[in-house]
Write a structure and sequence with these properties.
The chain is an alpha+beta fold. Helices cover 26% and strands 26% of the residues. The N and C termini lie far apart (130 Å).
């Protein structure tokens, strides 16, 4: 009987190499504070890189430029990486932003948009927020050229042409006149009106310096010569 009790006592003693085995946490239960510093602090460099990337992609828009539907913007909230956004204004001129939801920015300059978002974030969520709004891309703006041009069709406005383009440039983009074109007989449909343009006279008077500006949505029709 004595030997039996002694055997059970020996079996019940813990192995020195197994100390605290039963209380060791599993890897998935590890707390954030137990992570290595390189992982715990990894968000800061990546956040700085993301901010630098957005800034490098920004377009130097005129200070008076007003945001429009389909423009793409970046919203930078300093010190709040989770609130950084790169978004496109929808057809109603609004964007969806973290915490704020849908915010209409169309019709505002970049500075005005930043002021509006600063006020909205500061009202309920942040203390003295610092916000920057950058333009990443203009909305795709198109015009159409029909009639006596070599490549009739729909074209995008060149980058940086917020004030429109000269009608002579629009014709050039469409491949120039055909041999039977009548530059003096051009009509431009703009919304609900028709404008008659004598591009032949404009070309003689100095072209773009005194020309007719084509706006997004315009349809240009070049007439045919009458022999």
């Amino acid at each position: 009987m004595t030997m039996s009790i002694l055997s059970m006592s020996i079996l019940a003693q813990p192995n020195p190499g197994d100390t605290n085995r039963g209380s060791a946490p599993t890897p998935t239960a590890q707390s954030p504070n137990a992570l290595p510093d390189s992982l715990r602090q990894g968000a800061s460099p990546s956040g700085a890189n993301a901010a630098a990337t957005l800034a490098a992609s920004a377009i130097a828009a005129p200070s008076s430029y007003q945001l429009a539907a389909e423009d793409q913007i970046a919203v930078e909230v300093y010190g709040e990486d989770d609130l950084r956004s790169a978004v496109r204004l929808n057809a109603d001129g609004a964007v969806s932003l973290p915490l704020l939801g849908s915010v209409k920015l169309a019709g505002l300059t970049l500075n005005q948009a930043a002021s509006k978002l600063t006020e909205m974030y500061g009202r309920d969520y942040l203390v003295n927020p610092k916000i920057n709004v950058m333009l990443l891309g203009y909305a795709k703006r198109r015009f159409t050229v029909l009639g006596q041009v070599n490549r009739p069709g729909s074209y995008e406005m060149p980058e940086g042409s917020q004030g429109g383009i000269d009608i002579l440039e629009a014709v050039a983009i469409a491949g120039g006149y055909t041999r039977i074109a009548a530059p003096e007989r051009i009509s431009v449909k703009r919304r609900d009106q028709i404008v008659r343009v004598d591009a032949k006279r404009l070309a003689k008077s100095g072209g773009s310096s005194a020309g007719f500006r084509v706006e997004p949505g315009d349809t240009i029709t070049v007439g045919e010569s009458i022999f």
